[in-house]
Specification:
heterodimer; A: about 280 residues; alpha/beta; ten-stranded mixed sheet; two-stranded antiparallel sheet; 13 strands; about 30% helix; about 30% strand; B: about 150 residues; mainly alpha; about 10% strand
Chain lengths: ~280, ~150
């Protein structure tokens, strides 16, 4: 793995359950890695003891909260957006040109391929090469970040929207970033949606690549992390942050078949400027 | 944990999928190669079709009729512009027929994104080629697909 790259695993309150690290090892990752924790984590010492001080990077959560727009006036900082935003600064301090932000609860990386009309899995055990390929794609001008797909994207198999689209203009959960192409995540919660919508409207390119995906534990099954905040506020509050950031293209609506619930709805045609071929440009 | 909250969390898994359904319907992306270059259909929309101003006008009228200060009105007028809906497929169609100067100004406003020298298209193709090579290695390493 190239030396100017590192994986940042964003974690909080569960030093004994940093599953992503084990998964990276299983997938034969050979590059640098760090755990990113905040100074409001009462299990910080356990992280240091278990992983070593050189592997655990602590940041000042309150200080970082003043560097971006949380889109509200609350003081509750039990969310991941602070860690997401500090990574660009950490990368600079570590003199890294590229980094990858991962959550701490991944259990697998896998390719998703269609074979005889059925969606199949190839478990990824050459993850260095996957990361290298993603970084090369990230080098294209205008691309701010690229992400791997998530298991839930493939419900519906080969008919799932993400598998049909292949390259989707959104980015969630895992973020390959280039230090000299910084951007800010916004909103205390739903920061990934807020960010890909907000930057997307301004012509920035944020992509999810459907061919390779990560598996993540179901939200409620791994205590700590973001679980508490979602239990406290539910999906309505989560969704409204994206409406606040971009009211022209995000609405609140009802979703679901039997279990209707409130959720954001992105009006994509009002959200993302189209990518068009150079042949339409007049010289 | 209440059953209601439990159900909410379970539903999160499906939220993005459903939210995306409209993307496929709305976009006229090149389907065969799955590269997100919009295919120009040859429409020639009028300028006044490119932005939906209905909500903006509704807000503007309410602000005009209000008793808030002139300074506050100025701020609210600016805030109301956040509700302007730019129709990016029609904007792309308009771009294709616009003259050079207009096109350049549209590019500077990021109303369209030009895929210069097919950088995105080619970059994505190269990425897929790389993935194919890695998949072959992983099949050799892991055994057959779907088996760890």
């Amino acid at each position: 793995m190239r030396n100017n790259f590192a994986v940042f695993i964003l974690t909080h309150g569960r030093p004994d359950r940093v599953l992503t690290l084990d998964t990276l090892k299983k997938c034969n990752y050979t590059g640098k890695w760090y755990l990113v924790i905040d100074n409001e984590d009462n299990k910080a010492n356990e992280y240091y003891e278990k992983y070593g001080k050189d592997k655990v990077l602590m940041f000042d959560k309150l200080a970082v909260s003043k560097t971006f727009d949380t889109c509200d006036t609350f003081d509750d900082r039990r969310t991941i957006v602070y860690a997401r935003n500090v990574c660009f600064e950490l990368a600079k301090q570590l003199k890294l040109d590229y980094f990858l932000e991962l959550d701490d609860d991944y259990t697998e990386f896998r390719f998703r391929v269609e074979k005889e009309g059925v969606l199949r899995t190839i478990y990824c055990r050459h993850i260095d090469e996957v990361f290298e390929a993603m970084l090369e794609f990230l080098d294209i001008p205008n691309i701010s970040t690229v992400a791997l797909a998530q298991t839930g994207d493939f419900i519906g198999g080969t008919e799932s929207n993400v598998f049909k689209q292949k390259l989707c203009r959104k980015a969630m959960n895992s973020f390959f970033c280039k230090t000299n192409k910084p951007f800010k995540f916004i909103g205390r919660i739903n920061e990934d949606v807020n960010t890909y919508v907000n930057l997307g409207t301004k012509g920035k390119l944020l992509f999810t690549v459907a061919e390779c995906s990560l598996d993540q534990l179901a939200t409620q099954s791994n205590g700590g992390g973001m679980t508490d905040i979602y239990l406290d506020s539910g999906t309505y509050v989560k969704s409204i942050y994206s409406v606040i950031t971009n009211p022209s293209c995000v609405k609140i609506g009802l979703m679901g078949q039997s279990n209707k619930r409130i959720h954001h709805k992105i009006l994509w045609n009002f959200c993302l400027p189209k990518i068009i071929n150079e042949k339409y440009k007049k010289n | 944990m209440s059953e209601y909250k439990n159900n909410q969390i379970k539903m999160n898994l499906f939220d993005e999928i459903e939210a995306d359904e409209e993307l496929i319907k709305e976009n006229n992306y090149t389907s065969k190669i799955n590269i997100p270059q919009y295919e120009i259909k040859g429409l020639q929309p009028n300028l006044n079709e490119l932005v939906n101003m209905q909500k903006y006008y509704e807000l503007k009228m309410k602000i005009q009729q209000s008793k808030v200060s002139e300074e506050e009105k100025k701020f609210l007028y600016m805030a109301a512009t956040r509700h302007l809906q730019f129709n990016y497929s029609l904007i792309a169609e308009y771009y294709a027929h616009a003259d050079k100067e207009m096109q350049e100004l549209m590019e500077q406003s990021a109303l369209v994104i030009i895929d210069f020298e097919d950088a995105i298209r080619n970059g994505y193709t190269q990425l897929l080629d790389r993935f194919k090579e890695i998949e072959e290695k992983d099949i050799l390493y892991n055994g057959d697909e779907d088996e760890k």
